[in-house]
Amino acid sequence: MTLAGGEQEQRVWKRGQEYAQQLRECGADSTAAVKLVEEAATDPLLLCGYGALLAVARKGNLPDDSLALLRWLAWGTLRQRPSFRTLSLTEALLDKMRRLTFLSLATQSLWLPYAALRDELEIEEQEELEEWLIEVVEEGVVVGQLDTDQQAFLVQALPYVRDVDERRLQQMETRVNEWEANIRATLEVLDRAIEAMRAAAQTARATSRRMTPAPAYPQERPGGAEGCSDEESSEEAGSIAAVDPATAAAAASVALPLRSHRTVRERPTLTSDAETSPEQMEASPGLATGTRRKRRSGRD
Known about the structure:
Layout: H1 7-26, H2 31-41, H3 50-57, H4 64-75, H5 91-108, E1 111-113, H6 114-121, H7 126-139, E2 143-147, E3 152-157, H8 166-211, H9 230-243, H10 245-262, H11 278-283, H12 285-299
Antiparallel strand pairs: 1-3, 2-3
Helix pairs in contact: 1-2, 1-3, 2-4, 3-4, 9-10
């Protein structure tokens, strides 16, 4: 549902303020004030804003019928008509209340069945009700359409909004205060829960630090594993063998490749043929061949 405000609504509210100002000027306890209230009640251009007139009338000494009429126009319905002593209910006044009652119903629901409308508006015939609804739509009191198949009126927009009953305002204020109190209580509970979670997280982190052991790193010798000598490797293998023969064998198999990797094999340097031994020649076939060539060249 849309509250379709605009120039038309502003004119209606302005007209209500004009009536309120005239009521202040003529005095709320004079005969002119009573006539002014009756004129405002039947004004076809005034559909809302009777609450402002009622606020001014309460400050004076208007008759009870005038005050009851303003209350009825401000937030009453057609079926809630008061019992007037001196005021007569004219057809114009009843038609005004039908429009105001229809505005109240349209504010409460977008789907208004014909049966409910006939009861609230006191219109017995369906054809008469449909003609009245078409007239109200053409006047701009409400924006909507008739659904003859579903026997209902569909509200689409409301150009006017009626005054809110003072009792409803008090109920709304009480409910808002209750909501505010509930929200404050909920926020306090959430704050306490957040603080408890933070404290638990800090305690868990502190406990984890105390229970976690320090990492044990192996002690390396100066120079690293490759910087140790062959004697040190042999001593380590011997110490392992003294503990367990199987462990010693495994350590030896690891130590030997390390020794072969660290040992740099040097080729023998020959200064003369006399210094070359038969063992060196057997170990190096190329060396033996070179020695034989030198000997032949010496013989020649």
